[in-house]
Amino acid sequence: MRRFHSLLLILGVFTTSLAALDLPSNVEDFYDHVRDRRKCNNVLKGGFHSEEGDGGNFGYCGDFLDSYKIIYIQGNKGQLANMDIDCDGIQNGTGYDGRCASSTDTQSQTTFWETLRGYNVGQSDLNSNVHPYVVFGNQGTKQGWPTFDPRAHDVQPLSVMAVVCNKKLVYGIWGDTNGDDGPEAMVGEASLSLATACYGNSVNGNSGHDDNDVLYIAFTGSEAVPGAQGANWNASTAEEFQASITDLGDRLLGRVGSGASGRYVLEKWAVFATVIAVTALIAG
Description:
Elements: H1 2-16, H2 25-36, E1 43-48, E2 58-61, E3 70-74, E4 81-86, H3 113-118, E5 133-138, E6 160-165, E7 168-178, E8 189-191, H4 192-199, E9 209-219, H5 238-253, H6 260-283
Parallel strand pairs: 4-8, 5-7
Antiparallel strand pairs: 1-2, 2-3, 3-9, 4-9, 5-8, 6-7, 6-9
Function: Chitosanase catalyzing the endo-type cleavage of chitosan, the deacylated form of chitin. Chitosanase may be crucial in the degradation of the deacetylated portion of chitin in the fungal cell wall.
Family: Belongs to the glycosyl hydrolase 75 family.
Keywords: Carbohydrate metabolism, Glycosidase, Hydrolase, Polysaccharide degradation, Secreted, Signal
């Protein structure tokens, strides 16, 4: 019986496996550009932590909110965010392989379960083993607790998000938010299926990816929402679900202009030229 149970767990790993996509050149360029800039200039809200005990220098960045209609998470000195594992939502459902059992902070519902249920597609909530979702935004009522609601900037529930991790691209949805149940306000978290696509089956409910090199991109506007018919909410595997939103994700990533690193070089040369000009005026 134990050997049969182990076989089921192995099969479960395969059913939840999600293949990451090749990283488009414009997105790779943008990723490098963001890290080269070292910090966000238009912090929509800061004071968040990527891991407990760090400096709390992470925030939601709006540097390209107007030009590309995106928001992303960034820290200082070129840091982005890590990837903790979120196992909230449907428990022991389709694709369950036991890895979420180690989670110590699982919630029985995700933030937008009512929105999904309102689609009338037969799903009561998201399933971390099947739906590649991102935890984005922060709620809380504790005194002094930083909060951020992406909806204030027109990022809509269950909209498509793009995640750059391990030099790969994974499409997911905005499916949950961070609460105030811990000692510090955190960022950098995704469902088990999304994390598995990035880092393989070694991740589990209590062990994710610690380095702050993951780029989470949220898109504004209703066009980023697949809705009831635009995604396979009843998919039996994470790969099936991602396939149903890939075309939409590709269109949304088309907003991100290529050559961002080149523009950064031009920005630095512009600053350098200004310094030379000012120096010449002073010398004259």
